[in-house]
Amino acid sequence: xxxxxxxxxxxxxxxxxxxxxxxxxxxxxxxxxxxxxxxxxxxxxxxxxxxxxxxxxxxxxxxxxxxxxxxxxxxxxxxxxxxxxxxxxxxxxxxxxxxxxxxxxxxxxxxxxxxxxxxxxxxxxxxxxxxxxxxxxxxxxxxxxxxxxxxxxxxxxxxxxxxxxxxxxxxxxxxxxxxxxxxxxxxxxxxxxxxxxxxxxxxxxxxx
Length: 208
Ligand SMILES: C[S@@+](CC[C@H](N)C(=O)[O-])C[C@H]1O[C@@H](n2cnc3c(N)ncnc32)[C@H](O)[C@@H]1O
Description:
Blueprint: H1 8-27, H2 34-42, E1 50-55, E2 69-75, H3 78-85, H4 88-92, E3 97-102, E4 115-120, H5 130-140, E5 141-152, H6 164-173, E6 177-186, E7 197-205
Parallel strand pairs: 1-2, 1-4, 2-3, 4-5
Antiparallel strand pairs: 5-7, 6-7
Helix pairs in contact: 1-3
Bound molecules: S-adenosylmethionine (SAM).
């Protein structure tokens, strides 16, 4: 069956419309585990004060899993960033400071080598030119820094599915070393995402 993939404006509008309800739907009935899974995957690489870039941070659901760190969240949807901004004050209590930047994931407003870890959770399915996003994540992390991203291998309406081997090859092409990959199930049941989905999480390092 031919699947419809949204253009970037369509994606932005989808999240603008969803932003107010995103957290309550995902943390409630959907039992969304993507951010926690990615945080568990990179935990062994974190130190107190790690500089973390969250690429396509949305409402900042991942922030809570990175105590004692400096997080910069990048996203191109104002409404999602506004929800993320509302979490900043509470995160200070766990030693986490957060900055938010309006940005496209394929063109990040950050200097080279300024983060220890770059994560991206449930974003690649919207990015046609995934190699450009991976290149940006690689550019902004320090040598021996860590990159973690997820990709659904289940085909979902409005989204791009990618196999494990396809993503592994893209990472290799961008000169990243795949350290580990694992799968998990997401229970998306939003209008455009109508089936449980198998996601893969890829954890890589940037060679020195
Ligand atoms: C499913 S949400 C995931 C948000 C968050 N990472 C999480 O796990 O809850 C996808 C996010 O990617 C953002 N996004 C999609 N395409 C983007 C692009 N080209 N540039 C920046 N952000 C983008 C959307 O605005 C949205 O906030």
